[in-house]
Write the C-alpha cells for this entry.
Amino acid sequence: MPQFLRAALAAILALVAAAAEAEELSIAGPGGPLAGTLMRPAPLTATVVIVPGSGPTDRDGNNPLGVTAAPYRLLAEALRERGFGSLRFDKRGMFASKAAGADANAVTIDDYAADVAGWVAAARQATGSECVWLLGHSEGGLVALAAAPHTPGLCGIILVAAPGRPMGRLLREQLRANPANAPILDQALTALEALEAGRRVDTGPLPPPLKALFAEPVQDYLIDLLRRDPAALAADTRLPLLIVSGGRDIQVGPAEAAALHAAQPAARLAVVPEMNHVLKDVGSADRAANLAAYGDPARPVSPALIDAIAAFVRDARPPDSGARSPKTETAGGS
C-alpha cells in the first residue's frame, strides 16, 4: 500500500476510534432528561465530570454571548489523549437539557449541585469507576464545591478559574476595572447591594448594559449566588483539592485562587502563566488578543493545564488517607 494511503487510513481509523469513545448519555432531570457526552477511552486511567461555568454555557463550553472556543470539548479531548475519561453536560433548561426545566432561570446553586450528583453517579456506573473527579470551571467551581458534601463517589475536586470570594466582591472588581463603566458604576453598585440584601431590582431605569447584567428573570438566581462563599466551602472539604489559576485570566484573577488556597492550605495550587479564562494559552498581555481566543476553537486548551490535572490525579491520596502537605507549583513555567 502506498505511504500516503497508509497515512490516510491511519487517520481515518484514529477518527473512528475517537468517535467510538464518545457517547450520548442522559439522566433524569426535574422535568425531563438532562443530556451529556461521555468519553471513555481504553484503557481508562480516571474519569472527570466537567461542571460548566455561568450563564447559557453548553457542554462544549460555548455560549451565545460570544464564546465559541469550545474549551470543554477540547479539554475532554486532551484528557482522552492521557487516558482520562470525561463527562460534560448541558445545564438544566438549556440546549439538549431544555426539557429538564421549563424555566432555565428558575434554578439555584443547590439545584445545579443536585444535577452534578446525578452526573457523578451516571459516570461511575457507565465507566465502572469506584470514584470520579469533579472539575468545576469558573462559576462551576462554586457548584462543584457545593455539590461535593452531598455527592458519594468523589475522588477529589479540581477548580479551574474559580471564584474564591463571594461573587459580589468579584463583580465589583470587574465593574471597576473597566473604565467604560464609569458613567454607570454608581447604578451598578446600588443594584448589586440590593441583590446582596435579598431585594429584587427594578431594571426599568437602568441603562441597557445593566438591564442585561441584572435582568429580572435571573435576579432570584443572582440573590442565591451572591449569598455563597466559595472559600468557606473549600475550607470544609476533606477531599483532595486542586486549584488552577490562569496568569492571563482577565475575568477571574489570581486573588480568587489565593483566597481558595488560604481557606484550604492542604490544597495543591497550580499557576498556568499563559492561560486565559477559556483555558487557552495567550502569548501576551494584549487584551484584544486575549479576547480573540474566546472565539478560536482551533486553538487547543493549555497543555500545562492538562499536565497539572494529570499530576494531581496521579499524586492525590484517597479521601480517607488524612491531611496532605500543602503544595504550590507553576505549571508550564519556571
The beta strands are 22-28, 33-39, 46-51, 84-89, 132-137, 154-160, 241-246, 268-272, 327-330. The CA atoms of residues 175 and 326 lie 33 Å apart. Residues 10-20, 321-327 have pLDDT under 50 and may be disordered.
